Amino acid sequence: MPEYVDYAEYYDYDHAVTEDIPFYLEYARETGGPILELACGTGRLLLPLAEMGYEVHGIDFSENMLEVAGGKISERGLSHRIKLTCANMAAFELKEKSFALAFVAVRSFMHLYTQEDQLSCLDCVCRHLRPGGLFIVDVYSPNLGILTQPPGPDFELRNEFMLPNGHRVTRKDRFVRNDFLNQINQWEMLFEEFDADGNLARSRLVPMDTRYTFRFELQLLLEKAGFEVQSIFRDYEKHAYDGTGEIIAVAKKPE
Fold first, then answer.
1. What is 30-96 written as a DSSP string?
2. What is the CB-side half-sphere exposure of residue 234 using CA atoms within 13 A?
3. In a designed cystine with 64, which of 8, 30, 34, 159 is the match (CB 3.0 to 4.6 A)?
4. pLDDT tens digit sequence for 170-191
5. How confident is the model over 39-57, as pLDDT tens digits?
6. Strand 168-179 to strand 184-194: parallel, antiparallel, or no bridges (unpaired)?
7. What CATH number does domain 8-141+214-252 carry, 3.40.640.10, 3.40.50.150, 1.10.3720.10, 3.40.50.10190?
């Protein structure tokens, strides 16, 4: 896995995603626990799952992300239900090998940049699931318009948010290039933090590469790792995949 650059101090404010929470809660009710989340980040999904009574284990490559998650877990009194492990999702080994449900949400699987790492990740997940356990992976559907766009010379404003300290942060994105050979989109995110007087307090450039995976490629990867693909959706309302939106695959470890 290439050198990882995170932005844990901004992540929760820049990614206030909630629309997938009911989706994962539904599968948690269907399968029960324990539950494993790969690339759990700052605990966005771990917390609601634990608050519903499930035992959950989150792994992430970033110690900074896990530090933020740990603080929120302690604040909510959920340490007895949530375990955190700093590990590469392409190569991890946990004592627990009987998870009922595992998932990697919000396109985090796309930070595995080779098929070797993708397969290694899927093999690890399969080994840690109980027979009949479910695995869910969410990636975006490759968009030909984005794949063929030229590099962007300028940054474009993508988001703006406030920090608890009263500072205002702007996020601007720039498309760098598409590596067609390796199926990797390369972007840059520029975070500019301004103090209460409007002065630039901090500027940070974060590379953001993602490996796009096509629908049948993802299915073949899952099958090669020993899974049986049950469903592929285009959104969290479980509409069948139609070439647009997300590619959300639900796969089962054979019993």
1. HH-S-EEEES-TTTTTHHHHHHTT--EEEEES-HHHHHHHHHHHHHTT-TTTEEEEE-BTTB---S-
2. 9
3. 8
4. 999 999 999 999 999 999 999 9
5. 999 999 999 999 999 999 9
6. antiparallel
7. 3.40.50.150
